[in-house]
């Protein structure tokens, strides 16, 4: 047992845990260091893989068949089909040895890999979203897995069943582009700055990290052979490593990451070892047409996707700020902003316009926007902002908008993002640079826009004395918020992506036992009130860009908006930002979209329930009966 453990201890955690585990022989993809070539050692050991005797099912185990795209280019495909699957999904991966991070050079290489992966992920999710993107989800990543005893480099994507080939071609093209041409100088500067900001935030949290998170990180780090560092030490080492990181190092890391896919090109040398590809699709037949996928067609599609030339990525000019100081001064001159006391209709005393109150400071800007703000030091260098826009799906019914227009429009805002002179790509990259997270949702009674942001300077370039600070994440959020209210551009392609999302969600609901049960209950209890039900495909398809635009913008009236902000920041500074960026929004903004409010606006707010209450007995006809 000790001999076996000695042979396998440097290979996997699993192998070192117990001598009852059989020797783990990895099918590595790519060159492998000699110290990890344990196959000969394992074969020399007198070891019975069936320590407890053979099992009847052993003979029925079917291993994946290894095929070749070309001589020496190995691939193992497998397809899983099921009638309840609504989408095509792909998992393509290669196994590589874990590279221990134990010194500055190895840490710098891991950071180079992070920069390359970040650049690719943003390309696929920002630049790769065309007018009609072929995939619904796509991610390329490499993670060290202590459980598997290796690093898994994987491509995961989801698409509509009939567009699986387009999705594979689009994602593989971006991976090959990164592997062949690397990242641009601008991309490297942006993501190096993002890594530094992220590391600084983690360091600022210090001992506020939960014990569970710390323990999980410690176990994972030690199991993979890395050096464990505190957040403070990690920040110091990160700054030192990034200060000397070069574009060539990042591009070399990109080539290594993408080598297993780049090698499928006919003009490239084969990579050692197999690539595994697992596809999941609906249970289709050849008569289903384009949605039917076989192992042969899957392998053929991957091979075709890896042919041809790929052009290097074009540099995108990303603004450091969305609103110039001159434009902001002009807005203040035209619409002077000041604070007014907070007024309430429920009997709560008015709150002063010139004092801080606890736990929240509640005020109103002179254009009507309500503001609630609170400082929370526990959120180290982080802040949260929520804009509540009353209306939601309830407004569709009461104000006469087309059914589904409010929800589809809110999602179109999430999918879009062009403001003023800036394109969607530029605005989304601005959010990436400043580590902003934006989520726009529509529920029964409001449109809610949530922001998560750093409160420190972000978008910084350079290190040490050469460092140039960007604006704070707080100011970046104020700029985005102002542009959403007064300068948002509605685009047809964003509406298309919004509709696609709703169609997929509704079609998935039809095969979801829990979801359909909830839907049936809501239909019965609300008298099929569409405000509380999912939006079906026909309703989604009927919404036009004007329908979505008019519905959402009619609610973005300053006098109806409520802004709540909480985070680790200086209250007077953030209040002044709110006054400048939100207070200078004209009070009559979006008045051209306003609709006449009916006198009976409060009637029918909630479905009428029968009295006395009665028992409901419902039966859901299941297309695929199963035990519950």
Order of strands across the main sheet: 7-8-9-15-10-13-12
Mind summarizing the main beta sheet?
7 strands, mixed
Based on helices, strands and strand pairing, what is the structural class? Answer: alpha+beta
- Which stretches of 5+ consecutive residues score pLDDT under 50? 1-21, 42-52
Estimate the strand proportion: 15-25%
| Net shape | globular
Structure description:
The chain is α+β, with helices and mostly antiparallel strands. Helices cover 39% and strands 16% of the residues. The chain is built from 20 helices and 15 strands. It has helices at residues 2-8, 13-17, 39-44, 104-127, 164-181, 185-205, 211-223, 231-243, 247-262, 295-305, 325-334, 392-398, 405-415, 424-433, 473-486, 492-509, 513-526, 537-542, 545-553, 571-581; strands at 67-70, 73-82, 88-96, 135-145, 150-159, 275-282, 339-341, 361-365, 370-375, 382-390, 418-419, 437-442, 446-454, 488-489, 562-567. The chain has a seven-stranded mixed β-sheet. Strands 1-2-6-3-5-4 form a six-stranded mixed β-sheet. Strands 11-14 form a two-stranded antiparallel sheet. It is globular. The two termini are 45 Å apart.
What keyword list fits this structure?
alpha+beta, 628 residues, disordered N terminus, 20 helices, globular, single chain, 6-stranded mixed sheet, 7-stranded mixed sheet
Summarize the structure.
By secondary structure, this protein is an alpha+beta fold. Helices cover 39% and strands 16% of the residues.
Describe the protein's topology.
Blueprint: H1 2-8, H2 13-17, H3 39-44, E1 67-70, E2 73-82, E3 88-96, H4 104-127, E4 135-145, E5 150-159, H5 164-181, H6 185-205, H7 211-223, H8 231-243, H9 247-262, E6 275-282, H10 295-305, H11 325-334, E7 339-341, E8 361-365, E9 370-375, E10 382-390, H12 392-398, H13 405-415, E11 418-419, H14 424-433, E12 437-442, E13 446-454, H15 473-486, E14 488-489, H16 492-509, H17 513-526, H18 537-542, H19 545-553, E15 562-567, H20 571-581
Parallel strand pairs: 2-6, 9-15
Antiparallel strand pairs: 1-2, 3-5, 3-6, 4-5, 7-8, 8-9, 10-13, 10-15, 11-14, 12-13
């Amino acid at each position: 047992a000790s001999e076996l453990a000695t042979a396998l201890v440097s290979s996997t955690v699993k192998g070192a845990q117990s001598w009852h585990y059989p020797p783990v022989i990895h099918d590595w993809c790519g060159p492998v260091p000699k110290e990890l070539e344990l196959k000969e050692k394992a074969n020399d050991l007198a070891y019975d893989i069936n320590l407890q005797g053979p099992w009847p099912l052993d003979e029925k185990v079917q291993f994946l068949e290894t095929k070749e795209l070309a001589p020496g280019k190995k691939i193992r495909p497998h397809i899983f089909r099921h009638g309840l699957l609504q989408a095509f999904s792909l998992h393509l991966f290669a196994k590589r040895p874990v590279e221990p991070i134990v010194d500055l050079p190895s840490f710098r290489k891991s950071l180079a890999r992070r920069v390359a992966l970040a650049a690719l992920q943003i390309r696929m999710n920002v630049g790769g979203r065309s007018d009609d993107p072929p995939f619904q989800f796509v991610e390329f990543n490499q993670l060290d897995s202590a459980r598997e005893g290796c690093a898994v480099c994987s491509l995961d994507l989801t698409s509509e069943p009939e567009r699986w080939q387009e999705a594979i071609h689009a994602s593989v093209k971006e991976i090959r582009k990164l592997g062949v041409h690397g990242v641009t100088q601008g991309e490297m500067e942006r993501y190096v700055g993002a890594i530094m900001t992220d590391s600084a935030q983690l360091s600022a949290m210090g001992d506020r990290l939960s014990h569970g998170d710390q323990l999980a990180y410690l176990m994972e780090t030690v199991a993979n052979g890395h050096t464990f560092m505190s957040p403070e030490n990690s920040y110091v080492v990160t700054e030192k490593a990034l200060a000397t990181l070069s574009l060539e190092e990042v591009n070399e890391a990109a080539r290594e990451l993408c080598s297993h896919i780049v090698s499928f090109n006919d003009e490239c040398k084969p990579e050692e070892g197999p690539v595994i590809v697992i596809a999941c699709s609906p249970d289709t037949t050849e008569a289903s047409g384009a949605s039917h996928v076989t192992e042969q067609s899957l392998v053929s599609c991957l091979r075709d996707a890896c042919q041809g030339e790929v052009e290097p990525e074009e540099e995108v000019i990303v603004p450091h700020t969305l609103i110039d100081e001159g434009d902001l001064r002009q807005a203040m001159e035209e619409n002077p902003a000041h604070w007014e006391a907070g007024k309430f209709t429920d009997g709560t005393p008015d709150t002063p316009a010139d004092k801080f109150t606890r736990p929240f400071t509640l005020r109103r800007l002179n254009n009507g926007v309500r503001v609630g703000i609170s400082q929370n030091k526990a959120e180290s260098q982080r802040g949260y902002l929520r804009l509540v826009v009353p209306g939601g799906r309830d407004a569709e019914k009461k104000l006469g908008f087309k059914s589904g227009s409010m929800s589809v429009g809110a999602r179109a805002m999430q999918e879009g993002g062009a403001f003023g002179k800036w394109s969607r790509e530029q605005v989304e990259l601005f959010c990436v640079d400043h580590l902003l997270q934006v989520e726009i949702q529509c529920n029964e009674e409001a449109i809610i826009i949530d922001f998560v942001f750093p409160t420190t300077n972000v978008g910084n370039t350079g290190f040490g004395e050469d460092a140039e600070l960007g604006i704070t994440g707080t100011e970046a959020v104020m700029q985005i918020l102002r542009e959403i209210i007064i300068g948002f551009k509605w685009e047809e392609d964003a509406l298309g992506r919004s509709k696609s999302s709703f169609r997929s969600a509704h079609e998935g609901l039809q095969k979801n036992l829990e979801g359909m049960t909830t839907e049936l209950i809501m239909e019965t209890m609300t008298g099929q009130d569409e405000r509380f039900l999912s939006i079906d495909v026909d309703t989604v398809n009927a919404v036009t860009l004007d329908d979505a635009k008019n519905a959402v913008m009619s609610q973005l009236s300053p006098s109806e908006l409520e802004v709540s902000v909480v985070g680790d920041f200086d209250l007077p500074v953030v209040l002044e930002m709110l006054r400048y960026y939100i207070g200078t929004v004209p009070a009559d903004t979006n008045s051209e979209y306003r609709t006449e409010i009916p006198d009976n606006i409060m009637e029918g707010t909630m479905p009428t329930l029968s009295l006395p209450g009665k028992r409901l007995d419902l039966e859901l006809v299941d297309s695929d009966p199963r035990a519950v």
